[in-house]
Amino acid sequence: MLERWSKRRTSLRYRLLVLTLFPLLLVLPGVIGLAYLWSQEVGYRQLLMKANTDLAVAHEAFLNSQQSYLMNLSLAASHHHRAILQALAITTPASIKTLEDTLKNEAGLDFVRLLDLSGCEQRNNQCQYPNSPSMPQAFKGQPLSAIEIFSARQLSNIDPILAQRARIPMVDSDISEQRGMLIHLFEPIRDDHGEVIGALAAGVLMNGNFALVDQIRNTVYGPGSLPEGGIGTVTLFLDDVRISTNVPHPNSPERRALGTKVSTEVHQQVLGQGQRWLDRAFVVNDWYISAYEPVIDASGKRVGMLYAGFLESPFLDSFYYWLELLLWLFAVVLIGCAIIAVRGARSISKPLEHMTEVMDRVREGQHQTLPHYQSSDEIQELALHFNAMLSQLDTQHHAIQSAADQFEEKVNQRTAQLKHRTDELQQHIALLNRTREQLIEQGKLAALGELTAGIAHEINNPTAVILGYMDLLLDELGDQATPEMRHDAELIIAQVDRIRTIINDLLKLARPVPETLTYQTIDLNEVIRKTQTLVKHELQRRGIHLTLDLNAQRPAYADAPQLQQVLINLVMNAANATEEKGEIIVRSHDSAHGWVKLTIRDNGSGIEPQHLNRIFDPFFSTSHSGTGLGLAISHRLLSQMNAQIKVRSRLGHGSVFFIWFSTDKQ
């Protein structure tokens, strides 16, 4: 009793505690989960917006760099305007080269070439300078700056040093990128009358141009733009190859990741579709919040990409730091609420525990009442009602006990009278049930006997005619009959014999007492193989595969033809329950206690549980075309062989029949 009371007290306290803390336990994790999802969603969106903004700034910085180079060229051309006019007139190649080098150094360019209106270089009167879509507009008097891709040969014609600088070995590959991305500049040259008489063509090679990408990075990711430990990077791609970047090399952090490629997904979206790409990406050796946009050349083709991105890990560290603080706050709040809830639950559960104790003692027959509690709440009111109820229970208990004694005496008298009559009635009912079962069985056997006699009369005569004609056919064929023909004829004769045997078995099933038969030890495996020969054509027609797993070493005590009849019946029943491309497995092996076990398993539709106890009853069949005699005959034949048969089935998974044969007559 004490243990039960202790369990109730503990259970009550826990229930009160759970009821108090359940809203908190339900709401706070939800709040934390929503905060986490909101932070992830909004924070990630903010990071992508920042990456998009950074890319826009990098784009503007890149355009400003192009315009700055063009302005420097224009200023240098204006400063040396008279010398340029003279060079376009008549001068020596050496002086023109000196002039071009002066312009290149003053404007901070990689090369400068003086072209006439035909596009030929003035220094050697050769027209090998690469043709550019911007050249016609320059000769119309418009200064231009555009991105263009020069081949290694074109760079070498301009300056062999440029071709060497443009060469970038590919990472994890034996090939290298030899083309060059240039900021191609054109400054028209006018004479004293304002007519365009030539142009200055200049360029800045982007391959390996770290000063430009570092300048853009410093513009985009200035002080305070990233959290502590944050790293911002800018990269210029030629197609999908990094030709200028400040991303560290994967194998050597002090080097830059020139010659590495961007992912296929980014390549397809940016260069293939011409769209910006915004997402987290694994850049060389770490995760970055990345933004890519295509780089368009002077002819409007997408020839590369501009990238701006920053390291993701500092933002994740900050996010997880604040999430950890939120979890600690949740833990502190939960502990505080738990302490308050425990104290409140204890103040409520104590009087209720006292009431439980009094109830237990009253149940044991003791007279108890509750004391007066120093409170004015519902618990005091409950105690008063409880005491009133105990008083009423005492009064009603005495009245009920008196009535119960009188009722028990009358029941004992009536019970003694009815007991004798009940025993007689049960005996009559049992006798009636046995008689009814015997009548039903005899009726079935009588009907079966009459049916079998008619079938035997109608079938035995045609089968005798078939056998006679088959013997006559074999005699007439004589030596002309092939072995295959003789085998088929013999198979027909054997099957006709089996028909006659089946008719005889039906007659045996109809007899109330089986006749005495003579059995012998046989090779069970050989009977199974012969059965396979008889049913294989039908199974092949239905698309059902029959597998034999014959491991029995002991002989079985049975009659081979009757056993074959049982096997054919069980295999064809399995085939009828199996769809096309199903499988039937027949296994034999030695079992314990000197038995030989045979198993027939299929993966068909299975047998409903309520039918398992009736499948061996005569005339019971779930098939519209079946007679319900096959399994009954098989059961009767196996019983005559002192064999045992059982079945196990799962609806929708198949059935398995187990047969145990003795090795000698028992």
Question: Would you write up a description of this structure?
Answer:
With 666 residues, the chain is α+β, with helices and mostly antiparallel strands. Among the domains are: 128 residues, Beta-Lactamase; 147 residues, Heat Shock Protein 90 (2-Layer Sandwich). The protein is built from 14 helices and 18 strands. Strands 8-7-11-10-9 form a five-stranded antiparallel β-sheet. A five-stranded mixed β-sheet has the order 13-15-16-18-17, with helices on one face. Strands 1-6-5-2 form a four-stranded antiparallel β-sheet. Strand 7 and strand 8 form a beta hairpin. It is flat, with a radius of gyration of 52 Å.
Give the overall pLDDT as a whole number. Answer: 80
**CA-atom Rg in angstroms:** 52 Å
Instruction: Provide the low-confidence segments as ranges.
Output: 1-9
Q: In angstroms, what separates the terminal alpha carbons?
A: 61 Å
Residues in helices, as a percent range: 40-55%
| CATH-assigned homologous superfamily of the domain at 516-662 | Histidine kinase-like ATPase, C-terminal domain
Separate helix tally: 14
Question: What is the CATH topology descriptor of the domain at 516-662?
Answer: Heat Shock Protein 90
In one word, what is the shape?
A: flat
Strand content: 15-25%
CATH architecture of the domain at 516-662: 2-Layer Sandwich
CATH class of the domain at 516-662: Alpha Beta
